[in-house]
Design goal:
Strand content of chain A: under 5%
Order of helices and strands of chain A: HHEEHHHHHHHHHHH
Oligomer: heterodimer
Structural class of chain B: mainly alpha
Strand order of the largest sheet of chain A: 1-2
Strand content of chain B: under 5%
Radius of gyration of chain B: 23 Å
Helix content of chain A: over 70%
Shape of chain A: globular
Structural class of chain A: mainly alpha
Number of strands of chain A: 2
Number of helices of chain A: 13
Number of helices of chain B: 13
């Protein structure tokens, strides 16, 4: 999932700031439906259909329809062959909501959402402040900090699972610098595994947050901090009173993307912990639960029901967040943006 | 360390920046350098340097057919996805940006809503759809959904840009008896090349790194893309760590190369989008 966040964030943020810029920031009301569509000729209609038709067909066919189909399949006990016939009503959903494995996965997702915000947010703000200073080679550092973000999840997962093994490089480094007592079983110990996961997630995704925050900081007019300096504000006062508040919209959009990504986390967990270990190590997520119980067990009806639950939870959180947090920044991607 | 002025050369800042680079690049270097070691070196000294450097792991991977077949599959999937996303995306964005018609807001909202849902939630039914289309174990089975899931990002990056093309240019073109489609073809496309490259690169890297979708759709070794290949390789040769490291670092090269060539476009595209 996470690799897709990359583009989305650009888009969302682009849309958000673009919208607020265009509307002067104050327009919260839904865009008025103007009565300006007088005289759309047939030629123009044809152009509209010809140009946008293929994209809409693809999008509806491969995104919307599958989501709707999940709602339908979710009511059946079905092995994935032929037409589903064994209608079981809400049984699948009852099973999901009663399954302690799902509860654990949900709890892990919750932890990952909160910890991602609490770890990556401050770290990224700190790094962005650091890189926002006059610094030789700043552009090189920016590129390097972004490298983990561009590397495939599979590669990141493979590399870290090798390094975090009991006899892996991490423990070896700890021993060689005299901290052998800290060497641990980072992956299998249920007390530690979630923190190992958080570490890898932070390593992989913090660069993206830094890039966003840096761009946001460079949008802040320099006159403001100059004026603060004239008034005798210290560096830290300036950052706390000027930079951070003005960075608010960027931070809120980043947090939104981070939450959605964390809710749907799959790749790294599945690659590092595999389908069996994740639940005992305490890193399973709703998405890994869905794949293990649905596809791997060939219970496609059940898997679809899990997908619906995941969808509803994500949608609920997304809408609440848009309604209460993003509202002042944008008209909301979901509400049309225009 | 509170300073009024950020200063030109605070050594603390440089030290922190160096540490940061070490943490970010350490694992990457570990993979690349680890591929030059032997398994016994890795067992006895997991974090050491190669002594001596061996190239056997890399040459083994490079001379075997598996790696190149997977590079081929990944390239086809990524190129086709990119072409599809850019072509369909720019056409739809043009309509959204420069036509006025009933339902435009709804159409925009449709794509924007797609942003919130990466393929994870749709993957199970998507697999069944692909199966019904008879596309399991084929690259089109991966490419078509990837195009669909790449469209929201593309549309939302492109629409503000296409809308910003001055009306005067369009009017001038109309005076020269250029139709709206002609304007799209002769003016809009050439003007938007930098943005098309940006969205194209995002689509390419997304496809190149994509894991979940190929995991569902491609079960046959012959059709594996690189991410699936890396995982298959690392479970097949789980005792041969050095070779796994070599395979992993080789499969990392294309994305890194692509990124270093187009870094300005990618970062600039992201930050440019933020600036609106």
């Amino acid at each position: 999932m996470s690799s897709d966040v990359r583009g989305e964030s650009a888009a969302l943020t682009g849309d958000a700031s673009g919208t607020s810029a265009r509307t002067g920031g104050g327009a919260q009301s839904p865009p008025p439906v103007r009565a300006r569509r007088r005289g759309i000729g047939w030629a123009q209609r044809l152009e509209i259909v010809a140009l946008s038709g293929p994209a809409i067909l693809m999008f509806v066919g491969f995104v919307i329809v599958p989501v709707l189909m999940a709602g339908y399949y979710g009511f059946y006990r079905w092995k994935g062959f032929g037409v589903p016939t064994n209608f079981v009503g809400l049984d699948n959903y009852v099973t999901i909501l009663k399954d302690s494995n799902f509860h654990e996965a949900l709890w892990h997702n919750g932890q990952i959402v909160v910890l991602s915000l609490l770890l990556q947010g401050p770290i990224a703000i700190g790094l962005a402040l650091l890189l926002n200073q006059r610094l030789r080679g700043q552009s090189v550092i920016r590129v390097l900090i972004f490298v983990p973000y561009v590397i495939a999840e599979v590669i990141v997962g493979t590399a870290w699972s090798l390094m975090l093994q009991t006899n892996g490089a991490v423990n070896d480094v700890l021993r060689s610098i005299g901290l052998g007592g800290l060497a641990e079983d980072w992956l299998a110990n249920p007390k530690l595994a979630i923190w190992s996961l958080m570490f890898v997630l932070t390593w992989k995704y913090v660069g993206f947050a830094v890039i966003l925050f840096l761009a946001g900081m460079q949008n802040i007019p320099e006159e403001l901090s100059e004026a603060a300096a004239v008034d005798g504000a210290s560096y830290w006062q300036t950052q706390r009173r000027i930079t951070l508040p003005l960075l608010g919209p960027t931070i809120r959009i980043w947090a939104f993307l981070s939450i959605i990504g964390a809710l749907q986390l799959f790749d790294l967990v599945y690659i590092i912990w595999g389908q069996y270990v994740a639940s005992t190590a305490g890193t399973s997520t709703m998405a890994t639960y869905m794949v293990v119980e649905g596809r791997n067990a060939a219970n496609y009806g059940y898997g679809n029901a899990v997908a619906v639950v995941l969808f509803v939870i994500s949608l609920f959180i997304a809408l609440v967040y848009q309604r209460f947090v993003l509202r002042r920044d944008t008209d909301g991607a979901l509400t049309g943006g225009q | 360390m509170a300073r009024k002025d950020s200063g030109y050369g605070n050594p603390v800042v440089y030290a922190a920046a160096l540490m940061l680079i070490g943490v970010m690049l350490g694992p990457v270097i570990y993979i690349i350098v680890g591929g030059f070691r032997t398994n016994s070196q890795i067992t006895t000294d997991p974090a050491g340097l190669p002594d001596p450097w061996v190239t056997g792991n890399y040459t083994d991977v490079l001379t075997g057919g598996t790696f190149w077949r997977q590079v081929g599959n990944s390239s086809i999937a990524a190129l086709a996805t990119t072409a599809g996303v850019v072509a369909l995306g720019v056409m739809a964005s043009y309509v959204l940006a420069r036509y006025r018609f009933r339902g435009r807001g709804a159409m925009y909202a449709l794509f924007a809503a797609g942003l919130m849902f990466p393929p994870t939630v749709a993957i199970t039914p998507l697999y069944i759809l692909i199966k019904n289309l008879g596309l399991v174990n084929t690259l089109p089975g991966v490419i078509l959904p990837q195009i669909a899931f790449g469209l929201p990002t593309t549309v939302i990056i492109l629409v503000p840009f296409l809308r910003a093309i001055p009306k005067e240019i369009e009017e001038a073109a109309a005076i020269d008896r250029c139709s709206r489609l002609g304007f799209f073809w002769r003016m809009v496309l050439p003007l938007s090349v930098p943005w098309l490259i940006t969205v194209g690169i995002l689509a390419f890297i997304n496809s190149w790194n994509s894991y979940l979708l190929p995991l569902f759709i491609l079960n046959d070794q012959e059709s594996f893309t690189l991410p699936l290949g890396v995982q298959a390789f690392s479970s097949q040769y789980s005792v041969d760590t050095a070779k796994v490291l070599a395979f992993t670092s080789l499969s990392m090269i294309p994305a890194l190369l692509f990124f270093s060539l187009f870094e300005r476009r990618i970062v600039g595209g992201l930050t440019g989008a933020v600036k609106g």
